[in-house]
Every structure is written in structure tokens, then in C-alpha cells.
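Reviewer 2 asked us to include a model.

Predict the structure of this chain.
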Amino acid sequence: MHKQHIQEILQAAQSSPRHRFGQHFMLDDNMLETIAAAAHLTHDDLVLEVGPGVGNLTAVLARQAGYVLAVDIDGPLLQAAASYWHTLANIRWLHADALAGKHCLNPQIIATLDELRRTHNLSRIKLVSNLPYNAASPLIAELLIAMWLQSRHPGSGPLQLDCLAFTVQWEVAKRMAAGPGCRDYGALGILIQLLARVEILRPIDRHCFWPAPKVKSALVRIIPQPSQFTTIPDVVPLQRLLAALFAHRRQTLANAIRHGLHPENFPHLITSLHAAGINPNSRPAELTPSDFIRISELLPA
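Predicted model (C-alpha cells):
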């Protein structure tokens, strides 16, 4: 999509790229096709796109999938994009914030996905997005957590994603995929890796976007692994545990637990760590993702 067409849509919205919404619009048509191809779309797929912006990726998705739910917090731009792409009938344009809070998906999106899946008899749901930079990490985490929560009640909800293919900042992509001992290894990557398989498919040059961001991006694909969900007793306290420990990542595990969680019976907990084969003098970044599940099981509810 040429810069001129993007500017036409922005002009119709009486708008310009908004930094507070993390808006960087994809200019490279080949890259748009590459993003869509990463999700292996078919006409049986319902696509959730968060942050469609001017709708250039939305149009590619609509031609390959059964239906697209395009969700954007920027109402005027969403309306202008819907008008520009009005000939594509298999798109629902929804003005909404994907996150209803820091740790909560917008229930309107979940309800709309359920409606579209049933109405159009679609068998799979996939996220495919050029994600707004400021929403990427919490959105991906909350989507996977919502899937874990629904796995406790089979058939209770529509949010069973087969694939998530999206662009994010390169540094965020590295955090999602990093393993133990790496500088980028932390709470976000551990949570994702416990629930899914994550791949960095390729870097994306910053000049593929307008306006060009200050950093390069990456195309990431995440495949949820429901068979792994049962290994996690409760994902919500696990998420809190990870956040608390990696807030003190330079300290030993024992001190990170003491300062981040303030457990009542600290000496007993240290004894339990030893018994579980976890060294309290190791650093949080030295532990494997499965180690954190064992630690969460030792903590009081």
C-alpha cells in the first residue's frame, strides 16, 4: 500500500499517526503477504486483528480467511478504514480497546468472536496483526491466559486460538523466545513458553513502516499447546510469581522471594526449595520454565 493511500485514509479520519496508540503503518506489500502467510489461513478461519490502522493488512486477511474481526481503539481511523475497504464484505470493524484493564481482555471482543464463529460456521480462530507497540506484550499474555482459564471448563468459551502471527518490536520478540541464562529471559517469555511454542520467523526493517519506528521489528508466530496447560495448577498466581521474582532478577532466588513475595514462613519455604531440587542461591534467570511451576506449587495459596 502506497504512502499516498495511507495518507488519504488518515485525511478522511482527520488524523495523523498517533504515538500514544503505537501507530506505525506497514508500507511493504510483500511483508503484508508474509505476515498473512505465517498463519496459514484458509476460508475456515476467523481472524482477530488488533490495531488494523488503515486496513492494509485487513484487506489481505479478508481475501484469504473466512471472516476478519478488526478491532481498533482509534474510532475515527477505524471508520475511515471501513469506508475505504467497504467492498470487502467479510470484515467486522469494531471500535474497542482490546484490553479492558491491565490483566483483562475486553469481553466485547470475546463475545463478537463467538457470534462471528457461529454465524459463519468457522472452525478456527487465529490472531494475525501488525500489533500496536504499546499493547503487544499484555495482549499476547492475556490471550494465552484466557485460553488456559477456558481449558478448565471445556466448551465454555470461543477463545481457542490455533495460531498467533504478529509483528512486534525486535526486543519484545527476543523476550518472548529467550531461554534460561539469556539476558532477555524473563516473565513474559516464561509464561508464553509454558503455554505455547514461540518462533521468531524473521526481522522486519523499520523502513517497512510509516512513520518509521526507531527500532526494527520482528514477525513472530505462537502456536498454543493445550496439552501443556494441565502442567500449570493455576496460571494467575504463576503470572504474579514471575512478575515478583523478575522484579528482583539480579538477586538470588531466595532474596527475590523474600523481597518480591514476603512469604510468612520463609525458612520453611527455603527448605522446601532444597527438597524440590531447586537451588535458592541461583538467580531467577537461571531457572527453567518448569522450575517456576514447582516454585508456585510450594507457595501458600
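The longest strand covers residues 161-169. Residues 109 and 229 are 23 Å apart (CA to CA). We have added this to the supplementary material.
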